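Deviation from plan, reported transparently: flavin mononucleotide complex.
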Amino acid sequence: MTARQRPRWSELRPLFGTGAGGGRVERKLARAASIGDLRLLARRRAPRAVFDYTDGAAGDELSLRRSREGYAHLEFVPRVLQDVSAVDPSTTILGKPSALPLVFAPTGFTRMMHTEGEPAVARAAERAGIPYALSTMGTTSIERLAAEAPGGRRWFQLYLWRDREAGRDFVVRAAESGYEALVLTVDTPVPGPRLRDVRNGLTIPPSVTRRTVVEGARHPAWWIDLLTTEPLEFASMSHFDGTIAELVSTMFDPSATMADLEWLRSAWDGPLVVKGIQTPADARAVVDRGADAVIVSNHGGRQLDRAPTPLEVLPEVVDAVGDRAEVYVDGGIMSGADVVAAVAYGARAALVGRAYLYGLMAAGERGVDRAAQILRSEVTTTMALLGVRAVADLRRDHVRRRTD
Ligand SMILES: Cc1cc2nc3c(=O)[nH]c(=O)nc-3n(C[C@H](O)[C@H](O)[C@H](O)COP(=O)(O)O)c2cc1C
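Because the crystal trials were delayed, the predicted structure below was used instead.
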């Protein structure tokens, strides 16, 4: 006969909801086991147009799909019996320590995803021990973010402005507010065609129409947040008096050239990162003009559809640049395993945009913390399963492309 015993209180406690499980949001976040799960929570919380603005990409979204498939087609080559009792996922980025080979990428309109916005992302990045880049299109100003996350590694992302003096003003403000690096985005001579936004009739900020009121009934928490907190605006450009379309056309300069990069190099003393590099030739050209790092990126597929797949171009760019500059990669990264693959393929670090935005949209700052936690745990576990103790030991022969 089976011997029986009385159940322990610690085993029953969760049934009575008196455990240390926290509130409803904490429980939902704890049950999100992957960035994909956070994406599903985000889709439930945010109105469709806002979710689609974040989740979507340009044209037929081929670039984004291929970026994700690039990672899916990689296979890890593990070594066994390697003593991975202590795995250290830390590295250096721009010569300073970073707890992970990871950076939170610049994203515009972040307070639209959740009213806690950029300060939440910056504080979560600080807690995770990684850098965060504030976008020029941010909904929190350069100065405010510095005040809200004074201890974090803050970078500032810039476009080459049509009006060079306006561009210089940003450079001065970033320097005065203690930003560590400038990130110049170069893949946006004009805005990319975002078809989901057109179909959804997205306006920025979102406006209250009959359609949004009906939608609002399904996402009340998001709308209450929007209507009862500070208005959404391009906070670093609050003096700008014009429509969004006018703003974008003054901000993106289709006539910018490599000579403008030299101008920016002379205006900024700190590290300069060029984002949106898609060929080895361009990587060499911007490094020749003083870039300290390049980001192999197609803007998460949001600009040129059918652009090169960043992961595939990465090894060529690394070879072209050598040790003259650091090389980072972004686009389509949805897990810590993807981050490890990117580093093994030659990147010093990877950037993620949507991965943390899904967390933010799902639950504000706590959601970004959860995204960072998931990525960290996946990086560490993947390294251990690969038989690698330190980031510096990740090599190209730890990954290979499947041909099927
Ligand atoms: C909603 C959203 C807004 C973005 N806004 C900017 C921006 O203002 N400036 C910029 O350089 N990149 C911007 N990006 C691109 C990201 O910096 C990054 O390159 C991209 O998100 C990486 O792909 P992933 O989202 O698949 O990780 C944005 C991306 C998203 C998803």
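The radius of gyration is 22 Å. We consider this an acceptable substitute for the interim report.
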